[in-house]
Amino acid sequence: MFKINLNSKVWQWLTLIFLSFIWGSSFILMKKGLRSYSSDQVAALRIFISFLAFLPFGIKYFKKITRKNILSLFVVGFIGSTIPAFLFTKAQTNIDSGLAGILNSMTPLFTLIIGLIFYKSTAKLIHAIGIFLGLVGALGLIIYSVNGTSILGNINYYGLLVVLATICYGINVNHVKYIIKDLNGLELTSLAFMLVGPFAGIYLLFTDFSFPLSTNDYLLNLSYIAILAVIGTVLALVIFNTLIQHTSALFGASVTYLIPVFAIMWGIFDGEKITLVQFLWIGLILTGVYLVNQKKRI
Question: What is the greatest pairwise CA distance in the chain?
Answer without folding.
Answer: 61
